[in-house]
Amino acid sequence: MLCEEAGDTAEPLPSAVEQLVRTDLPFMEARDGWIARFEDVYVRAILQQTSGNVTRAAELAKVSRRFLQRTMARLGLRDTEPGSAG
After folding, report:
1. Contacts of the segment 58-67: beta carbons below 8 A, 24+ positions apart
2. I need a labelling partner for 69 at 20 to 30 A (CA). Which of 31, 42, 43, 53 fits?
3. What interhelical angle do 27-49 and 65-75 show, nearest 10?
4. Residue 86, Cα to own-chain centre: how many angstroms?
């Protein structure tokens, strides 16, 4: 449900919202930063869960191995799967 008044919200914001979302930036810039940070944290976490096995991490993430490898390259992470060309 949309709020009719600017200050009216369904749930209170977390007390540390400033640490989560850059409200000092324009919306699109803040969103892009949020997405970049999410991708970095998500990829690192899923690789940690799979002990660096990229194939298994891709399966858990429900993405192709190639997509995950490209995302890792964009993030500056190395393919740590044994036997990979790096």
Report:
1. none
2. 31
3. 120
4. 22
* Tally of CB atoms within 10 A around 72: 19
Cβ-contact 45, 57 below 8 angstroms: no
Q: Do 11 and 17 contact (CB within 8 A), yes or no?
A: no
Can you tell me the distance from the alpha carbon of 19 to that of 42, in angstroms, rounded to the nearest whole number? 18
pTM of the model: 0.71
Q: What is the 3-state secondary structure (H, E, C) of the chain?
A: CCCCCCCCCCCCCCCCHHHHCCCCCCHHHHHHHHHHHHHHHHHHHHHHHCCCCHHHHHHHHCCCHHHHHHHHHHHCCCCCCCCCCC
Q: What is the pLDDT of residues 59-84, one digit of tens each?
A: 999 999 999 999 999 999 976 444 54
What interhelical angle do 54-61 and 27-49 show, nearest 10? 120
